[in-house]
Amino acid sequence: MKLHEIGPNIKTLRKAAKLTQSDLADLAGISRVTYGRLERGEIATVSIKTIDIVLSALDYEIDIKAKEAYGIPVLE
Q1: DSSP element (H, E) containing 13
Q2: pLDDT per residue over 41-67, tens digit each?
């Protein structure tokens, strides 16, 4: 997954879990504003630790894999 895809993918997971942004932010222990930035793909202002906490609240985790092609680094 490319870095700019993280936010939209987390949004999809949140909606599948039938949670609001506020619900998930509360579960992750972060502000709704910070969560909103993550979901909009403004990850430059959100730490990897915060992404990990949000994914953990959704029962997912970060997995790192080798890049398959040129371009932006990926997180899986």
Answers
A1: helix 6-16
A2: 887 777 888 889 999 999 998 887 776
